[in-house]
Specification:
Blueprint lengths: L3 H9 L4 H16 L6 H45 L7 E7 L2 E7 L1 H9 L2 E6 L2 E6 H10 L4 E3 L12 H7 L11
Antiparallel strand pairs: 1-2, 3-4, 3-5
Amino acid sequence: MRNPLQDQLLKAGLARKSQLTRAVQEQKRKRKGAAPADQAEQVDGQRLQAERAERDRALAAERNAQARLHEARSQARQIIQDHKVPMGGEIPYRFTDGSHIRTLYVDARLRGQLAKGTLVIVRLDDGYALLPRTAGEKVAARVPELLVLDNATRSEAPARDESEDEYYSRFQVPDDLVW
């Protein structure tokens, strides 16, 4: 049984009866889900499917990594918002952020806590915030590049030879030296 389009093609002479029967047979095979006629086509199909699956896995892994990074940044931002210490004062406290020297104005109590390492400085948007040490450690665990200054974990200066140490040991330099 042919459809009206096939009848019209036969009447117009655009198709032969053998072509129509072949087309009908191919359609039946496709509906039944017959296996590909050639083994090479099947292997190529499986290879393409495996490549596509691998590419999809790689893209999913990249998306997951981006999502975890975004989540960690959001958590760090929330910790900073919740635990930041209000700063204000007239004493400038200078610190380095990368290759730049930055200044925060604090009072004497905050300056002493920064020098001891009980407070840390973290980056918040375009500015900086003061956090208690425990909150600063949480932020550093999530996004290390947000931690700008932590005086408690500062490494000591490189070792000098003993003759220089003896000479300079006579001069005491305070930890909270104002620049």
